[in-house]
Amino acid sequence: MAKGWLRALQSASDLSRDVEIVGLVDLDHAVAEALAAEFGLDHVVIDTDLVSVIDATRADMVFDVVVPSARFAVVSTALKLGCHVLSEKPLATSLDEANALLALAAETGRVHAVVQNRRFISGVRRLRRAVEDGLIGEVSGIHCDFFIGPHFGGFREAMDNVLLLDMAIHTFDAARFVSGKEPLSVYCVETNPSGSWYAHGASANAIFRLSGDAVFSYRGSWCAEGRRTSWESAWRLVGSKGMITWDGEESFEATVAGDETGLLRGHRALSIPDAPDLDETHGHRSVLAEFIDAVKSGRRPETVSDDNIKSLSMVFGAIESARTGLPVSISVEGH
Q: What are the GFO/IDH/MocA-like oxidoreductase domain coordinates in residue numbering (predicted)?
């Protein structure tokens, strides 16, 4: 992921103008050296200790691309040393840690945000605009299917709750963003199916109650071989006037009731508006630009941590429900 962030920073002239990479930190010094060589970062400070690099470089921002278990230590250190922080997801490995980081960001006055890069793609932005425009009326149902079988190797295959904690948050966060609704409760069944190459929790089925009496259902598996869905899931939005379907890639369809008589009224197709701003649809590049602009202007970034914790609470609510076999209320302490 560090390579993806560096490619995004170097590929856009406005980002490369605003941001200078001054240091790289990795527990394995050789890994950081290899990254610096690959991206032509000849004059950066390289070390295994974050404090030393921040002190040596007087850095303004820290881009946190560590494994989840290291996130709290990295982010809290950077905030205490006066740096703004943009983190990979998840925001934290527990809600207690997340709330502690939010409190620290507020205390230090630093910008703290999370890379929910899948908000910043054309399809998600188009869905959001269609909902805001009332294309299908009031949204009452969001239904997402995610079935893929990636063989990552590495830390993911050893994680607990791997699908919910490492991947499903993308769809959970997008469902919040698209619908404009807030999560209230969840019931979840989590399994590790036969044939799974993960240690735990490669499949999950979750039903969320949302504000406005809406429902969000998620069916997912990260060990589903065969014809896959998109990485963005396959979507169906149900509203008071009609439905929108999106395959997570290029295929969109919006339909409302037709004029047929009898039991079923048929359907009539509608056009779906484009994404409102093409600058917001470049994934990592867009979320980095949005974060950097927030640091420069003093405004709140879209994926600021005190909003992103609501998406994280959906993840931990689903994990708790799967553990207990009971519905779980979703609340965010102090927010």
A: 124-244
Structure tokens of 11? Answer: 């590929």
Pair 289, 320 in one domain: no
Range of the domain at 113: 2-117+284-303
Chunked in runs of 10, what are the mean pLDDT values of the chain (335 residues)?
86 79 95 94 94 96 92 97 94 93 96 89 92 96 98 91 92 96 97 97 98 97 96 97 95 91 89 73 79 90 93 96 97 56
One domain for residues 180 and 293: no
Mean pLDDT of the chain: 92
- Residue 202 and residue 77 share a domain: no
**226 and 189 part of one domain:** yes
Conformational region of residue 266, where left means phi above 0, alpha means psi within -120 to 50, and beta covers everything else: left
Q: CA–CA separation, 142 vs 218, rounded Å?
A: 9
The whole model's pTM is what? Answer: 0.88
Q: What is the pLDDT of residue 186?
A: 98
String of DSSP letters for 48-71: S-HHHHHHHHT-SEEEE---GGGH
Distance CA 110, CA 6 (A): 22
Sign of the Cα torsion 41, 47, 53, 57 reads negative
My answer on whether 59 and 129 are in the same domain is no
Is residue 40 domain-resident? yes
